Structures are given as structure tokens and as C-alpha cells.
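Hi C.,

You asked whether I'd gotten around to modeling the 370-residue construct. I have! Everything is below, sequence then structure, no commentary in between.
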Amino acid sequence: MASSEEKVVAVIMVGGPTKGTRFRPLSFNTPKPLFPLAGQPMVHHPISACKRIPNLAQIFLVGFYEEREFALYVSSISSELKVPVRYLKEDKPHGSAGGLYYFRNVIMEDNPSHICLLNCDVCCSFPLKDMLEAHKRYGGMGTVLVIKVSAESANQFGELVADPITKELLHYTEKPETFVSDLINCGVYIFTPDIFAAIEEGSTQREGQATIRHLPSSETFLSPTRALPTDFVRLDQDILSPFAGKKKLYTYETMDFWEQIKTPGMSLKCSGLYLAQFRFTSPHLLAGGDGNKSASIVGDVYLHPSAKVHPTAKIGPNVSISANVRVGAGVRLISCIILDDAEVQENAVVINSIVGWKSSIGKWSRVQAS
């Protein structure tokens, strides 16, 4: 059995109903973290990645949704992965670092040596095992997953400058008005328990500030001209920026895919990315069929076991079909998500679209988004 010094815990920030408004109307019926991508709840993908971390002790989901909204999922995923998963409800939003600090005593119950911190609405391959090994080599307090993007899009994210040799984080700025770097923050981190003292220090240093010049979009429910509460701490401005260049923070660059899941349109793209990743991580989740006894499957497709698909239908690529869906004869589905209890009737075509829960697409209909 692993010693206590080797234990790792994972914390996944899931937000709450006052966030993710750009994801509406999909988040009206179900919490955004439970919306299915590639047939699995959005939060399932980072949870599955955490399961591959050596010596993982627990996974915590932190947010301000009501506990009843996550109870069933937490119970089932804990049994499925055979690792404890707990939902921790904030009494109010505390910010990306403040939420971690608020539950510090619970998170440290197993005396972990490392804490993996992830954001639920990030879509990537989550290279946590390699990232953890790099973090141990660096010997710092924290390691940030980063990726290179185009100079034109970089200012939509947190930009950073890293030492090309040591990978130390030298400078960090959130959504700058002028170009700083094509390296951006992916919203995935590994910390030692020293992060809690850093959060306390960052909060103390910020006290007395009367105005905040800019907030990231995920935290805009606070007025930019209001002083922030002392227990509201942002990981980017209050931790990454002040501790950059002090040999405490380092970077790990991913060469794989990365996206933010902010809108319904992005959920389609990210579902396709996760389906493609299943070829390597979970091939058993991908459907097969040659059009004889079962539907013709093209490319990466997830088909829920309870779904009924006519053998003459042609499905794929990038299609996810949820529970109790009925797909009729001659149907063509391309790049779409069909949600629970929906029906696509004979000879209908659905392209680049999300078909809602209990919806019905009529015979010979064509549903296509640009």
C-alpha cells in the first residue's frame, strides 16, 4: 500500500447555476457539469483522467449546486471507478482558489503530498500522470498546464511567459489588452499543500484594494468596481500573477487538444474530441456496425445500450446517442448529440445539431446548423 507521503487527491471545480449562462438553454434542464459529451457527463472526463493518477486517494467536486443534483451521479461514479468521489457544496462562490481554501481541512484529510486541481468545463486529454512527474522534477509549489495558441486568440485567455529551459512561470496576466505571449493557461494544475498558505497570503496582500480592474468571464457576477470579499480568491490574479518569477510556479506544455466548453456549439466540438480520444482510452465505448444486422457506423460514435437504431440508418462521424433514443429507418446522423428519450423518425437528417430531451424529429425532416 502507498505511504501517506505519496497520496494524491483531485479537486474538480464545477461552478454553480449562476455560472455557465452562455451554455443555456442546455443547462436549464440539467447542471452543466452533467451534460453528456461523447455519451458521458462533462465532469466524467476529468474524473476518468484523475483515476489514472498513481496513488489517488479521493476526488472532490467543488461547487455551489444543490447537493441533490449531484448525489446520484457521485454515488454511481464512485462505484464504477472504485475510488471515493465526494461533492462539496460551497455556501457561496469563493473564487477559483477560494473554493479550494474553503475546504482545505476536508481536502487534506488523507494528508496528500499533491493536489490536482481541474476545471470541469475544460476539454483536453488531461495528461495528469506526466504532469505530476514533471511537477516533482521542478520541485515548486505548483505546475500549470499550458498550450500554445494563435496570437490572435491568445488574449481571450490567461497569457503567460515561461523560461524555455527551466519551464518556470515568469509572468502571468489574465486576458491582456495587448499581446504578451502565445502560451495560455489551460485551467489544470498540480499543487503541493503549500498552496493553502499561498492563498492565504494572496488574500491578505489584496486586502484594502478598492477596485478590481478586470475579472475573467467566469467571475463576472461581481461588479468590476467593487472590492472583493476577503474569502473570494482568484487563482489567476491573486496566486499566479503575484507568485510568478519567484521559483514557486512552473509550466507543463501539452501538445494535444484543448478547448473551453462555454457554449452549446463548443459542446458538439468537444464531444467529437472525446469520441476520438476513446479510440485510445476507452475503445469499448465506441459503436460498430456495417449496415447488415445493425446500423452503418462511420467514424467515432457512442451509442447507449438502451437506444434503438434501425439497421438501415447511417450514423457518424462524431455522433453521441443517449439513453432510450429511437432512430428510424433511413436516418442519417452526422456530428450531433441526441439526448435522452428523443426520436428521429424515418429518413430524417440531422447535421451539426443537438436534439433535446424527449424531442421528436419528423419523417423526412432535415435539421442542420452551420
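If it helps when you're writing up: Confidence is low (pLDDT under 50) at residues 210-225.

Thanks,
B.
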